[in-house]
Write a structure and sequence with these properties.
By secondary structure, the chain is mainly alpha-helical. The protein contains eleven helices and three strands, in the order E-H-H-H-H-H-H-E-E-H-H-H-H-H.
Length: 364
Amino acid sequence: MRLYTFSNECNISNTSVELSAETRGTYIFLATTSPIAVLMNMFALIVLTRRRAIRLGSMRVNLITLTVFEILLNLNILGVMFSKFSGLSEKRTTLAVVLDVIMFCLLSWALFARNWIITLIALARCVAITRPMRTRLMSTHLFRPKSLAFCTITCLIVGFTFSALRMFELHIVVCDNLDQRLQLLPSGGLQGLVDTHFFFQSAIPITIVFITTLIMLIALYRARTLVLDDSPKERGDSRISVTANRLRYTSGARQTHLCAEKQMNYRRTQNQLRATRMITLLAAIFIILEAPIFFCVILKKYFDPVFFNFVTTALKALVVMDSCANVIIYLFMSKRFRQESARLWHKLTIRNRPFSVTQTEVVM
């Protein structure tokens, strides 16, 4: 299939001008909030990649990958808004068309990767909360670090392949009657590819995240799967034969050991609860902000094409809001993320302090 054709019957459409007038407020909102989302996610990426951030746990690598694709996603949205405001998208030169195709593919890939990374994080947390550590072997754990990394890389490759294939969804028309201007038109016969891409990009992730969120909410409500077994057999309360001289020492040592074990189990349970609350909130926000996009694509045939373009542009705002919400959730729900953020801020302020002191001394 050819990516471009020549035509002498091209017409200048006023659709873009009408859309620009109708969606001006949406464009301004996206152009204002997408840089904020980029800065917030860059801050989160710096915190997550710090040396002490390894204390954030096994989800740290996936959170870093998620943050990287959130940055890529918002940068593409910002690029689309810049193209709209600068008028580059209206000129339809070769550079403009190439940039449109590249941003279209990168936006699709970033959205695909973001959805599946959140899905894998929710699945891993669901397995961790429904199968306590004492009842599962790490070697048989489906989402141990190596398996989770393999699943993440597989999702990235599949998403990139689908996004590259979507290049054929846009057909380039070279207009000979308009001084070789280029137009991007949807090509027919690829509806199966579009439906398959949507099925893997949105339908499957939303369904999986919805189910895992329900399971995590039930587990948090009941608070049974996170409570470690405190029976006498698990604690090692079997009778020990001791002499009278060693009775006092043995009972004191056992009491100290049991207190230390209880304290360790309590801390572990609290860490599991905090991690589950954070992942549950991430998944819930993802479902709330992704569901309108899901239903919009399903009901596409009931929308007017011009109105559908307006709706899809407005729904990009939900993607930006989701990116900002993730960083806010990290700050409020993760104590260790707050600690690393405070250390980073303290380090930056200490670096700037000597310069301000010497400058004051010079003035005096």
